[in-house]
Design goal:
Elements (H helix, E strand, L loop, with lengths): L4 H15 L2 H4 L5 E3 L2 E2 H17 L7 H10 L17 H16 L4 H9 L12 H18 L6 H15 L1
Antiparallel strand pairs: 1-2
Helix pairs in contact: 1-4, 1-8, 3-4, 3-7, 3-8, 4-6, 4-7, 5-6, 6-7
The structure holds fe (ii) ion (2 copies).
Length: 169
């Protein structure tokens, strides 16, 4: 599951557009699962959503797919700190992430749907676009892999770190 050079260049260019914003880099201060920060998680979801999309027989808006995936968990707080009133995180954070994202970025309808519906079926309204369905499924898969530390295999870590390092250079 590697991207070839042109696709990797496209991917890095797209995530860079989002990563240049200091608020987005702030996601690296919050742990998402295990030892993975929210920013690393978002890059992994964007990366594997893009790979999944390239292998599907549909017309896909890659630009919105990658940007929406990068911002799907842009909620900017430590969700594990129950004392700070972040209860019902699973239900509430898509809306909070969307509000934050809209403050700093001009979002397409698809990008909004990706962010708002990624927790489906926990949140009742289903995703509307193929891009949102992909991100929602990849998010769940990546979450399980991160939670159980399965990204520790060399293969996955190399890709993730490479993308991250190149993106912030
Ligand atoms: Fe989420
Ligand atoms: Fe997520």
């Amino acid at each position: 599951m590697n991207l070839d050079k042109p696709h990797m260049t496209y991917f890095l260019q797209k995530i860079n557009q989002v990563l240049t914003h200091p608020k987005v880099l702030k996601m690296d201060e919050f742990i998402q699962h295990g030892k993975v920060t929210c920013l690393q998680h978002s890059i992994a979801v964007a990366y594997y959503s893009y790979i999944a999309a390239l292998n599907l027989p549909f017309r896909i808006d890659y630009h919105s797919l990658i940007r929406g995936a990068m911002l799907h968990d842009f909620f900017l707080y430590d969700w594990r700190d129950k004392n700070k009133g972040f209860r019902w995180h699973g239900f509430k954070h898509p809306k909070i992430a969307l509000n934050n994202a809209q403050k700093f970025f001009d979002l397409s309808q698809k990008e909004k749907d990706i962010i708002l519906r990624h927790m489906w079926p926990l949140t009742i309204i289903p995703p509307k676009y193929i891009e949102s369905i992909i991100v929602s499924l990849v998010d769940k898969t990546v979450t399980v892999l991160e939670t159980f530390n399965l990204f520790k295999t060399k293969f996955f870590m190399i890709n993730q770190k490479l993308a991250f390092r190149k993106a912030i250079e």
